[in-house]
Each structure stands twice: as structure tokens, then as C-alpha cells.
Amino acid sequence: MDFEKISSIPPFSLGKEEKEKMLTKRLSELTEFHRKNCPEYGRMLKSIGYDEKEVRSYKDLPFLPVRLFKELDLKSVPEEEVVKTMTSSGTSGQAVSRIFLDKDTSANQQKTMVKIVSEFTGSSRMPMIIIDCPGVIKNRAMFSARGAGILGFSIFGSKRIYALDDDMKLDVGGLREFLEKYKGQKILLFGFTFMIWQFFYKELLRLKEEGITFDLSDGILIHGGGWKKLISEAVSHDRFHADLKDICGIEHIHDYYGMVEQTGCIYMECECGHLHSSIYSDIIIRRGSDFSEAPAGEPGIIQVVSTIPESYPGHSLLTEDEGVVLGEDDCPCGRKGKYVKILGRLKEAEIRGCSDTYAAK
Amino acid sequence: MSNREKYNKAFIDSLELEEDQLEGLTYQGVPSWDSVGHMGLISELEDAFDIQFETDDIVDFNSYDKGIELLKKYDIEIE
After folding, report:
1. pLDDT tens-digit readout, A313-326
2. Residues A301 and A318 placed together within one structural domain of the fold
3. Nearest CA in chain A to B30
4. Does residue A56 sit within a domain?
5. Does any CB of chain A come closer than 8 Å to the CB of residue B2?
6. By CA distance, what is A124's nearest residue in B?
7. Global confidence as pTM
8. Residue A182 falls inside a structural domain
9. Residue A185 belongs to what domain range?
10. Which of A48, A197, A346, B64 has an alpha carbon within 20 to 30 A of A40's alpha carbon?
11. What is the pLDDT confidence band of residue A360, given thresholds at 50, 70 and 90?
């Protein structure tokens, strides 16, 4: 089952059984492909006594700890086919993951991401405000997770502006001019959660005292990168929404969960506040005690599977995040698939969220 | 300027290429046509022809020839 076929299925259209059948087929094939093409992966499967005949569901497939991509250069294609290397957002001193992409995997990531996000924003492109600094995409061959996120979402921007300069200062004049020019149009805003709060919200708050305000009530804000830093400032999800609405009128706000090791397959927050898994990927919650699957409602360690990765063996990974499945196929928003809540980083795991890297500098 | 000249100029300017590199060119075929270069190329073409691509077409735009085919949807003929 090739990815082309999977990507022709609408992202939230399959019920539990159909999805399980499709994922089992594709992910078993990927396991076999990586076993043959990535020597380290092949040896790992051998050492755990992996036997594909025992696989009844994709839930039975082995998973690698994400940490492994920091320690080993894992790839399933020859070096000369690697067109892009992505790195996770570790701060200096921390090891970073290195993810190797060939043409196909890279193109499939972008294609998938567009399909998922279009279900929330519509497929038409909008003037876009990137709440970050342009310096983030400077080194083109080595993308940080932040750069990859910005670039991935840029496809939705018909015209784009970076709201911050390289010193992370809000470009008030540029922003005003941009909003004036595209007045009356739906505007897309994108950024990382902590940076939006620290360098956008707080600056808007300060400007308001000087009598300078912005109207973003026609805006749709997509943000990701984790809440860890905001929780330490006692900013909850609800406060984030309420305060942003209060300061600039923005009401449509979607969080997303994703990681550089499985770029493309993001989990977008719907109108009901739930993060949704598309048919291209899934989340399985594992119990810390024995790695068995936890039922809906029981928190545990998040395993992610993705149908995209061909150039590196990252189709089934155990993250260092904690989460809980809230339900499946029955979210009031109408989208099928599991919907989840992310509870944060596992205790003792290192800081690594995109929006936390700036904080830790 | 003919449409062909405009089309070529967008590639040459945004991806810093020479005219003779364009024939048979594919996405990721030269270092400058990566995902950053791609968005620059798209903007350049949108300005040159005063159109706005749909997201699917930006994703499908993976070669010099494919772009010519996609532009037909926007009533742009590259002779």
C-alpha cells in the first residue's frame, strides 16, 4: 500500500475498524522496509525477536524511543538521496534528533500537512502573519523544528510577514501596514505558543496602555510547540484564549501537537478543544509499567505512528510526552478518529518543546 | 515579455539559476530549489502572472514542466 493511495483518503473520514486495517497494512510494510534498508533498525528488531507473523494490528508493531534519533544517525536510504536534515529543537548543550529526508518523504510530509490543516482553515490561502523572526529559517539545509513548522505552514500564506525582528521585537509599523492592506480579509497567524505569549501578547498589552491597538477579529491563529513554559507562568489554555481575544479580538485559535520526528502528521485542535488524529497517523497511550495499551480516559506515555516515514525508521515511536485518549469517532465536531489531550512532558524527560527552546537560552 | 520569458525569469530570479539550467529541472534537483526556495518561486510566479495558486497546486508543482501544465488552470499559456 503506497502513500499516494493513503493520501487520497480524506483525513478524518475513516472509522476505527477501517483505519486500523489500513494502518496495520501500511505500518507493517514500513517496518519490513526499514528492517531491510536500515541496518541498525534491522539489528534492533532481531535483538527483540520481532516476528511479523505475530502482528495482528499496528498496535503490535515495535516502537523506538524518540531519544534514539539523538544517539544514532538512522536512515533507510543512501546518503546521496538525503535532501534535507531536520533537527529537533534542543537548546545548546542538549543533544538534538537528526531526521534524514529524501525527496518523497519530504514531499509527503508537506502534502499531508496541507490536507490536515485545510480541514480547519479551508483550502484558500490567506495573508499570513508569522509570529517569529525571519532568522529562524536561515540555515536551509539544517532545519530546526521551529523553521520546519513555519515553512510548512507558509504554504497557506498568500502574502507573508514576520511579526518579530531578529531581536524578537514586535514590528509595530509593519504589522499595522499589513493589516491595513488586507483589511476585511481572513488573516492567518502562526507561531509557537510561548513566543506568541511572550513577544506578541505581552507587547500588545503594553501597547494598549499607550493607546495602540490591533483588530485581529478576522484572524485564525494556529500555534504549537507545547505549554510547559506557559504553565510555569500559570497561563492555562483557557486564559490564553480569553486574554488573546481580549487584547486583539481573535477568536479562532487552534493548538496543534506534532514533532519533528513525524513532521506532516500533526494533531490539530478542533472547535471543541480536542486534538485530533488524522487517518495518516495515530496515537496509542501506553502504560509506563508494562507498555500495554491504556484505554480511553487513562493517562499514559504517548506512542505515535505515522504512515509517512520512508527515508528513516520513524514510523512508530515512543515519545517522552504524557497524554490521554478522550474518545474515538465521536467528537461533537464530526471528525472521525481518536481525539486526545496532551498532558505534558514526562517527568525527568528533558525540555525540548519548540516554544520552550527560546525560554531555556 | 512573453509568458515563457516571465516564467523563466521567475525561476532565474528566485532560485538564482542560469537560463540553461531550467530545462528538465525538478524540485530538489538543485540546492536552491528546496522548500524555502519553492515558496519564493511561488511568490515570484504569482506576482509575475497576477494569480494565486491553490495549496494543492503548490504541493504538486515539482518540476519546471509540471509548472507549465499547472499554470494552464489559471489561463496562463506558456508557449
Report:
1. 999 999 999 999 99
2. yes
3. A83
4. yes
5. no
6. B54
7. 0.90
8. yes
9. 110-256
10. A346
11. very low
Q: Do B28 and A158 touch (CB under 8 A)?
A: no
Q: Are residues A25 and A53 in the same domain?
A: yes
Q: Over 80: is that where the pLDDT of A330 sits?
A: yes
- Looking at every residue in chain A, the average pLDDT score rounds to 92
- Which of A256, A283, A315 is the C-terminal boundary of a domain? A256
User: What pLDDT band is residue A356 in, cutting at 50, 70 and 90?
Assistant: low
The interface pTM score, or ipTM, of the predicted complex is 0.85
Give the pLDDT score at A353.
52
Look at residues A227, A256, A285 and tell me which one is the last residue of a structural domain: A256
To the nearest whole Å, the CA of A132 is away from the closest chain B CA by 16
Task: Band the pLDDT of A93: cuts 50, 70, 90.
Answer: low
Is residue B8 scored above 90 in pLDDT?
yes
Partner-chain contact A125 B55, CB within 8 Å: yes
Nearest CA in chain B to A118: B55
Do A93 and A131 have their domain in common? no
Neighbours of A293 (CB within 10 A): 14
Q: Which residue from A69, A62, A119, A132 is spatially nearest to A263, judged by alpha carbons? A: A69
Q: How many CA atoms within 13 Å lie on the side-chain side of B4?
A: 6
> Domain with A120 in it: what CATH number?
3.40.50
Residue in A with minimal Cα distance to B60? A111
B76: Cβ contacts below 8 Å, ≥ 6 apart = B3, B49, B51
Mean pLDDT within A170-187? 96
Distance from CA of A117 to the nearest CA of B (A): 11
Mean pLDDT for chain B? 94
**CA–CA dist A148, A151 (Å, integer):** 5
Is A125 within 8 Å of B54 when comparing Cβ atoms? yes
Interchain contact, A110 vs B55, CB within 8 Å: no
> Are A147 and A240 part of one and the same domain?
yes
Contacts of A281 (CB under 8 A, 6+ apart): A262, A265, A267, A304, A305, A306, A307, A308
Contacts of A84 in chain B (CB under 8 A): 34-35
* Beta strand extents in chain A (DSSP E only): 64-65, 84-87, 98-101, 126-131, 142-144, 157-162, 187-192, 219-224, 252-257, 267-269, 275-276, 281-286, 300-306, 316-328, 338-345
CATH topology of domain B3-74: 1.10.1200
